[in-house]
Amino acid sequence: MRPVIETLRATLIGGILFLLPVGIVIVVLGKLVNGASVVGRKVHETVLPGLDADATAFAVAVLFLFLIALAAGLFARTQAGLRTFTLMERLLLTRLPFYSVFRHAIGDFAEGADSLIGTGETRVVLVRLDDMQVIGFVVDTREDGSCIVYLPGAPSALSGSVALIEPDRITETSIKPTEVISGMRRLGQGLVALNQRARRGG
């Protein structure tokens, strides 16, 4: 009986910890929506009394939430905002389940595939494995010539793996990163032509 109780307690605690951040998000969003609705009704009553009440209040509420999010984003870009967010993240947010997953998902959505390309020239290479070749992005090169290569997945090039590849297994290509990313979105369609072009060296 005791093992059953222990298992039930652990499961219950795990469920509470999982639902806690969901509840926090719902409460915060609920407060924001309620506040925005109040502002929308006040604007309708004082500024636009002749228009449809529900539509005007809803439009103003959406605009109010948009402005709040924009202001928060602008503040987050400042030094003070960055320090505040870092402190909150370290003390609270990272302790909440699935926060890291949610944050990376939002980051991927915001940056998109451009986060793979970076600010400089990204080398696209063919990596020879035992019985196949795969396309990869060179992330870094070591002193011995071996490379850290990111191997993008499909359909999202943002999901992949990282490998340390010996130089004799790497073939340089003239393929552009954007072409690879586009091909991955189409589950590889068009990559045969890119591979043939790479073999010809241009």
Automatic annotation (TrEMBL):
The chain crosses the membrane at residues 12-33, 53-76. Keywords: Membrane, Transmembrane, Transmembrane helix. It comes from the Bacteria. This is DUF502 domain-containing protein. It comes from Neotabrizicola shimadae.
